[in-house]
Design a protein that fits this description.
The protein is of the alpha+beta class. It has seven helices and seven strands; from the N terminus they run βααααααββββββα. It has a seven-stranded mixed beta sheet.
Length: 201
């Protein structure tokens, strides 16, 4: 699974300094362990002509023997992702500030289940929502109001019914939407729909 987020300990006013320190430590260790600088690894990544983060990570791990952490670092550096490895958690925290803070347990419960689907799940935080991707986006998680969490799901050939409603104007990138108000609504039925979308992606 590709996680474009940092652990939750990066909280507080000195978060950025910790991030910078952690990054520099990884960069130093990468050169010590491999004999190549991060710039040299970026060049190798770009020469592969791969454009997707997950593909670059896999390439560096399988073809060059990098560990996942180092491959992830190099891929992000090479792509300069707008939802970078170190910015992702900040984007997520920003979504759950103020009135929407009570919805964070719903997000955490969903992520805990989605992580079980496979190592190729990519969690890509955006400004207003989090995209869940495999080869393509299969779902999105969005705290829409102070009391409603929307789970957008891409399900081909499935007719909307009950909780699984048509996405409508919610998000053109998904076919269905499930409205969630409490953690207990993150149930087997909802996870089943997400798993089906993941399998199709």
């Amino acid at each position: 699974m590709t996680l474009l987020v940092r652990p939750n300990f990066l909280i507080g006013g000195n978060a950025m300094s910790k991030v910078d320190e952690a990054t520099q430590t990884m960069i130093r260790n990468l050169e010590e362990k491999t004999g190549k600088s991060v710039d040299e690894w970026q060049k190798i990544a770009r020469q592969s002509k791969l454009v997707k983060h997950g593909e670059i990570v896999k390439f560096l791990k399988t073809e060059h023997g990098l560990t996942h952490g180092y491959a992830n670092l190099v891929a992000h550096q090479a792509l300069q992702s707008d939802a970078s490895h170190f910015e992702g958690d900040d984007l997520i925290r920003a979504q759950y500030t103020g009135a929407k803070a009570a919805l964070r347990p719903i997000y955490d419960a969903l992520i805990a289940e989605v992580e079980k689907f496979g190592e190729d799940v990519e969690i890509a935080p955006k400004k207003a929502y989090v995209s869940l991707r495999r080869k393509k986006q299969f779902a999105c998680l969005q705290p829409s109001t102070a009391t409603r969490f929307d789970v957008g799901i891409n399900l081909k050939g499935v007719a909307p019914a009950g909780r699984l409603e048509a996405s409508g104007s919610f998000n053109a990138m998904v076919s269905h939407r499930v409205r969630v108000g409490e953690v207990r609504e993150v149930d087997d039925e909802l996870i089943g729909w997400l798993r089906q979308a993941y399998d199709q992606a």
